[in-house]
Amino acid sequence: MAPSSLDVVLADHQPTMLAGLATVLREIDGLRIAGSAQSPPDLMDVLSRVPCRLLVTDYSLPDAHSSDGLSMLARIRNRHAGLRIVVFTSQINARFVDQMRRIGIPAIVSKSDSLDHLVAAIQAVLTGGNYHSPGIPIAQAEDMRRGHGVTKSELEVLHLYLSGLSITEIATRRNRSKQTVSAQRLRGMRKLGIERNADLFRMLHEDCDSLFGSLHGSMPQKKQYSTGTTASTLMQVSDSSSCKGGV
C-alpha cells in the first residue's frame, strides 16, 4: 500500500519526548503519526514495515552495537531514498552539520529552538526544500568546507595531540611554551565547532583524512573512543496529553 502523503515516523530514545512530539505534530493538518521507535534496530524495523513519507528523528539513539548516528542515518538514506528526513537533536556543532549535509539530510532542528521551527522544517522538506533552525551553525559549517579556518600551526598541534602526545611533549617538540600550545589546541577546536576532547577524538575516527590531509608525514592511527516552546517542555506537553501512555 502506498503511504499517505503526510504519514510520519518519529524516533527518540525518550518515551516522553516521543509522546510530546506526537502531540505537537498532530496539530499539523493532514499529518498522521504512522509509527515510532526508540533505538536504531527498532527504527529500521518500523521503516521496513510502515509506509511513510517523513521521518523525524533524534541523531543519537542508543544501540548495544553502535552509538554512531551518522551511520544509522546513512543506512536509512540508502534504503529509503524517497524518505524525507528531519533531524531533531541537541547535538549541534559545525562538524555535525557538515556531516549531515554530506549524506543528504535536508533539515536539522535544534532542540533548544522553538518548536515552530520543527513545524517549518517539516513543511519545507515535504515540498522538496531544506531547513535549518537558528541554533544550527550553518556559517561555521561553510567555513569548515572552505578549509575549517584552522591555521597550519593549530592543525599541527591537534595532529600531535591526537597522536598521543601531551601538551608538554608537544611544547618541547615545537619549541613553544605550554601556554602557547594549549591556546593553539583550544583555538583549533573552537574553529572546528567542538568543545570536548571526546568530540575531537570522534572527529579523528570519522574523517581523519579530510581534517589532516594537508599535513606532511603520517597521520595518527584511527582509534575507537567512547564518548516559543522548546524541546525541554515536551515532557510537560506529553504529561497533559491524551497520548501520555505512548504514541
Question: Overview of this structure, please?
Answer:
A 6-stranded parallel sheet has the order 2-1-3-4-5-6, sandwiched between helices. It is α/β, with parallel strands linked by helices and 247 residues long. Helices cover 47% and strands 11% of the residues. Strand 3 (54-57), helix 3 (69-79) and strand 4 (84-89) form a beta-alpha-beta unit. Residues 143-147, 216-227 and 233-247 have low confidence and may be disordered. It has helices at residues 15-25, 40-49, 69-79, 94-102, 116-126, 138-145, 152-162, 167-174, 178-191, 197-212, 234-239, and strands spanning 7-11, 32-37, 54-57, 84-89, 107-110, 131-132. It folds into 2 domains: 7-141 and 228-239, Response regulator (Rossmann fold, 3-Layer(aba) Sandwich); 147-212, Winged helix-like DNA-binding domain superfamily/Winged helix DNA-binding domain (Arc Repressor Mutant, subunit A).
Concise summary:
The modification 4-aspartylphosphate is found at residue 58. By secondary structure, the chain is of the alpha/beta class.
Topology:
Blueprint lengths: L6 E5 L3 H11 L6 E6 L2 H10 L4 E4 L11 H11 L4 E6 L4 H9 L4 E4 L5 H11 L4 E2 L5 H8 L6 H11 L4 H8 L3 H14 L5 H16 L21 H6 L8
Parallel strand pairs: 1-2, 1-3, 3-4, 4-5, 5-6
Helix pairs in contact: 4-6, 7-9, 7-10, 8-9
